[in-house]
Amino acid sequence: MERYNVGEKLQALLYEVRDTEGGGAEVILSRSHPEFVKQLFIQEVPELRDKTVVIEKIVRDPGYRTKLAVRSFDSKVDPVGTCVGVRGTRIKNIIR
Length: 96
Fold this sequence. Notes:
- The protein has helices at 34-44, 46-49, 79-84, 89-95, and strands spanning 13-19, 25-30, 53-61, 65-72.
- It is α+β, with helices and mostly antiparallel strands and 96 residues long.
- A two-stranded antiparallel ribbon has the order 1-2.
């Protein structure tokens, strides 16, 4: 389980918002949901944003590994290389 300090910045997926009995709201965040990984990649990889490359499937073992199946609609674009980046730069940015 991850622990966070008050004021610490982090990225997470807004998973759910629930109404509480006191009239407030409970916000549920996730850093392990596959959609979180998908959004991180979309943020980092322009070819995913413009849909030249798409993520077909994501399988996670949170905290250990994540596997993505990617496909390109352009035969000149390597989908894996595009997501990894030169010398792993895109992956390194996502891991941080």
